[in-house]
Amino acid sequence: MPIRPWLLTLAALAILSAGCASPANRVAGVEIPPPLPAGDVSDTYWGVKVPDPYRRLEDTKDAQVQHWMRAQADATNAILDRIPGRKGMLERIRAIEGGAGGVTTEVVRTEGGRLFFLRRNPGENQFKLVWRDGPDGADHVVFDPEAGAAGGPPRAVMDFAPSRDGRRLAYSVQAGGGEIGTMQVIDVDSGRDLVPSVDRIRYAEAHWLDDGSGLFYLRLREGYEKLPEADRFGDHTAHFLDVDGGGTDRPVLSASRNPELGLPTYATPVVFQVPGTRLAAVIMVMGVDRNLQFFVGDLDAARAGKAPWRKLVGTQDEVTAITEAGGWFYLKSSKDAPRYALLRMPVARPDLARAETVLAQGEHALGSIGGARDGVYYTRREGVNTALYRLPLSGTAAPERVALPFAGGVELKSTDPRSDGAVVGMVAWTRAFKDYAVSASGAVTLLPLAKDGAYDAPPDIESREVMVRSHDGVMVPLSIVSKKGIKLDGGNPTILYGYGAYGSTDDPFFSPRVYAWLQRGGVWATAHVRGGGVFGRDWHEAGRKATKPNTWKDTIAAAEWLVRERWTRPARLAVYGGSAGGILVGRAITERPDLFAAAVPAVGVADTVRAESSANGVANIPEFGTVKKEDEFKALLEMSSLQHVKDGTVYPAVLLVHGVNDIRVPVWNSLKFASRLATASTSGKPVMLRLEYDSGHGQGSTRAQAQERSADIWSFLLWQFGDPAFQPAP
Q1: Which letter does DSSP use for residue 261 in this model?
Q2: Does pLDDT of 20 surpass 50?
Q3: Structural contact between residues 172 and 199, judged by C-beta atoms closer than 8 angstroms
Q4: Which of 4, 2, 3, 1 has the alpha carbon at shortest distance from 585?
Q5: Residue 359, number of CB atoms within 10 A of its CB
Q6: Conformation bin of residue 113: beta by default, left when phi > 0, alpha when psi is -120 to 50
Q7: What are the angstrom distances between the C-alpha of 451 and each of 147, 446, 548?
Q8: What is the DSSP letter of 102?
Q9: Closest Cα to residue 619, out of 202, 310, 279?
Q10: Mean pLDDT value across the chain
Q11: Structural domain boundaries enclosing 395
């Protein structure tokens, strides 16, 4: 559950920074105004004074801060426009994507075979919400984000949920990347609204009753926007919407409504009917903690908001996923099994103490699970790739490995306890993502939901997997993608990408935009660092809170390996990461600034000490820690890129990429980090803020936005690597 990139005020202002005049910087003939004046601001935690000279930038509504941000964004855009090769790079990206196949994201199959999915075909700028009857049925567009939106901020579907029979649909829509929007509930066949639009939606997580008469969903509390930022998204509330009962809507469960449950304010209750029963169940998401809580109660009482919830699973039980099939709850648990085991208990008499183990911990980490009528489907990570299995419901039969069309990443997209089979997505480093239907017999069939393209499996690139020894002797996987026959002469322009948080894994992927980088001789390397989940819970725990330094030290080790093996050299190496991966990028360049020519933190976390003061910060305490505990404060201080910038240091060039509407990682992370770097660096290399005013954390970005973003990043890096075709005039 996790979590994934950002200088420029008025040149006429006489700005003072750290007590000295800070002149404007001229880059490629464009003047980058200096940071706003540094302030004498600090906080003391556990006897440690923590300076925060750019605290004022947290107030992005301040007129002077806004003026400064606009000046920074304008200067960065002007500089990027002066890179000679940028236009050609953008044209090449557009040409490749124009010839690439269509893309689907979410796919849900309902009882009877009706399919709902988000799809963007070639030539389309945004994902449409579509349904069809069966794999070969005619397409019906439910919602086209671009229809009627000319001139306004780009819209996007956040999530959707069809009823069991596929006749009704709930979906939520956001604008400008802000991730807060409205939910619509419609009759699928006619397109008619069944209830008025519902506001205050930050991902609805809607779940219909078996009979389709109503649904449970999530809604922000009334007046959330007026609360202090750190409290804004707390007390996320489950509601029941009685569609057939006149659209009556009532809150039914939250931390404040149910104090008897002892929940923290960041707990998020996902409520649903247990299929075929009169039970309601709650999967309680505890912020970014992968360990869930699980409750059951009477369905009618739950609909009325009066259920006496019975707790079946607590966070101490280390259950990270739950599904239902054949009258059983199946639970993925890391309790005494760091690579995870699969347990089950009967729905009629659920008792975790008596749960049986149906799949013991294996050599490889257990991935996602999904219950179907013919068994429980699950994935296992085998190195960087994943395999798909089906476990029969008898509890005694051996699991069956599903034969897949190629090796790569497998995503379990849709299963239903009332239907056989599954829908999965498959992708590889050199093959585009495609959806497949898996039958009860094990047959795997391509679903023709999107158009094929000329670049679905380019023959001129290849991937390889290596293991790299880190600072403490631990071997870390590194995936490398490049053109075939590339020369290891130390001269290849190379991007080292990493994330390393929440136990998330960097699965294989193929992107037409990355392919444009590879076509030009670039190398893409993904470091599967600690903090991720490639080897299970232990790998996550080895890069979390006090052990977080392993995340960027593993990245540094991967960079050193790429240089040592002559894939590249520091003058042609960049580190790139987004969101929580911003910690990885920021600390890699503050610890080893000599190792990289450039860095791109995208929507990146840079100030971990101040993180929990933000709207999304409290929910992230389980992953990173809190300043309210001395040991966790020390960990937060150590992982803070902002606090490790040193004056008089030769730092690489940095392009900080951030959506101004980001509600997950506030844009001030980038504003503060950029300001501090600009005043400290003696390299003469640029520190630039690329700010998007119609974007947020990245979800909901249009194709055009993504293309421009990639063209800017690739061009910036090639400029800094000294590529003659990308050198702007001074």
Answers
A1: G
A2: no
A3: no
A4: 4
A5: 21
A6: left
A7: 21, 12, 42
A8: P
A9: 202
A10: 94
A11: 318-452
Beta strands in 163-253 (DSSP E): 168-175, 181-187, 198-201, 207-208, 215-219, 237-242, 248-253
462-480: pLDDT as tens digits: 999 999 999 999 999 999 9
Question: Would you say residue 628 has pLDDT above 50?
Answer: yes
User: For residues 585 and 689, what is the distance between their CA atoms, to the nearest angstrom?
Assistant: 15
**Contact assessment for residue 571 and residue 491, using Cβ atoms and an 8 Å cutoff:** no
* Contact yes or no for 8/32 (Cβ under 8 A): yes
pTM given for the model: 0.93
Could you say which of 399, 421, 452 is where a domain stops?
452
Same domain, 392 and 515: no
Relative orientation angle of helices 703-720 and 63-81, to the nearest 10 degrees: 70
Amino acid at 645: V
Structural tokens at position 78 = 């002007």
CATH of the domain at 693: 3.40.50.1820
Q: How many domains does the chain have?
A: 2
Residues in the chain: 730
List the structure tokens of 239: 């509601």
User: Is residue 641 a contact partner of residue 590, using CB atoms and an 8 Å limit?
Assistant: yes
CATH number assigned to the domain comprising residue 434:
2.130.10.120
- The number of angstroms, rounded, from the C-alpha of 560 to the middle of its chain's C-alpha atoms is 27
Asked if 562 and 525 touch (Cβ cutoff 8 Å), the reply is: yes
Termini Cα distance of the chain: 45
In a domain, 549, yes or no: yes
Spatial CA neighbour of 494 closest among 562, 579, 560: 562
pLDDT for the residue 14:
26
What single letter denotes the amino acid at residue 235?
D
